[in-house]
Amino acid sequence: MPLAHPDRLLPAGPARALARELCASVKDAPIVSPHGHTDPAWFATDAPWANATTLLIQPDHYVYRMLYSQGIALEDLGIGVLPEDLSDDRARAIWRTFAANFRLFRGTPSRMWFDHVFGEVFGFDQRFGPDTADAFYDAINAALATPAYRPRALLDRFNIECIATTESPLDDLAHHAKLRADGWGHRVITAYRPDAVCDPEFEGFAANLTRFGELTGEDTGHWAGYLAAHRARRAFFALHGATSTDHGHPTAATANLSRVECEQLYARVRWGGASPEDAERFRAQMLTEMAKMSVDDGLVMQIHPGSFRNHNRTVFERFGRDKGADIPMRTDYVRALKPLLDAVGGERDLSIIVFTLDESTYARELAPLAGHYPCLKLGPAWWFHDSPEGMRRFRRNVTETAGFYNTVGFNDDTRAFFSIPARHDLARRIDCGFLAELVAEHRLDEDEAFELAQDLAHCLARAAYRLPSAPK
After folding, report:
1. Beta bridge partners of 246
2. In this predicted structure, what is the pLDDT of residue 1?
3. Which of 106, 146, 148, 433 shows the greatest Cβ crowding within 10 Å of its Cβ?
């Protein structure tokens, strides 16, 4: 595998020289990863990973969704099997299947991330494929057995200043408690993801609400007790480092109902008889309730709508949620967010970060909204658009209206820990190329470009997510 070209992703022509300088200026900047889905157990136990398969394939839905699309069964990739239950022989066989089909990733961000992991993290100078599969597998496994490749050591090696995981309100946060006790609580923090107790269509919703009440000592049989339970868990999460909440609703719909309407609606979703329209209305009301709570407790609110989650019913029934079958949908923001914004949109201490999978809304809806409301910021190009072209489209569509400072830099939103440096390197290259083009067009001065390069690489994310500065 040839080493990655130093000018990869940089613009051609007169802007390239400056883009190189801008990239060099942020190359060693710390990584701020304020939203993601890595396993906190990795960092709490600091145990070595067992093998390349359980590290690089099993947690990464980008990998197995592509293989599944070509007819490879998820069972044959070990999906649904706990890492500790995967035999050595089966893990190697899965790795060989991945290598035999690595050509499927040509031209995709996954290919770029893997090339970075193989070359920069593990030091390979050969191309990965069927002929080198076993050599890569054995060398990676040997490296993983050494102290230098333990999770906490890699936080330092990757220069990760802070990384956030994402947990349900029903999680006891035991791993985060261990991290705090060990003095790592400032490096690995949690985020409050209440979908399991905010979405009436979430599996096990009624039982989840019962458990929610047990954890908090609040009466979740009634609306007031239910809201009190949220406040209690938000405070508990904040004690474990949380600075943000995250909401993965199907749509961006919000509502601002009267107390009586809320009590009646909650009774239906809590005790039965709720319609699909009730479920959507309840989710909408809960976004507004979460925003009001954020005004009080200062947690940054993230809204991740627009995904038809678990589209493949068979995969969902056999393997559960988040198995690569989530599909983007058209999403309305102007009308959808208005009830929430009418209620709290002028609160300067409130911070709401909005993401989208509907790129058609960048210039038409999201940039104008973020360019007006003090509480709104735009999250980076997300999920299917976490790619070179997706990032370019995002910057070109939102900057003229929202500017740079109504965006929040970059977050990697990943379960694949080893890909985090590659993802941030890619984002920095795209942003530096964009800045260099603005300078070449005389729309930006060089000193402004260098300042913006730092802001986009790490400063905006740290500020937007209200993260403390790294200890000296």
Report:
1. 302
2. 46
3. 433
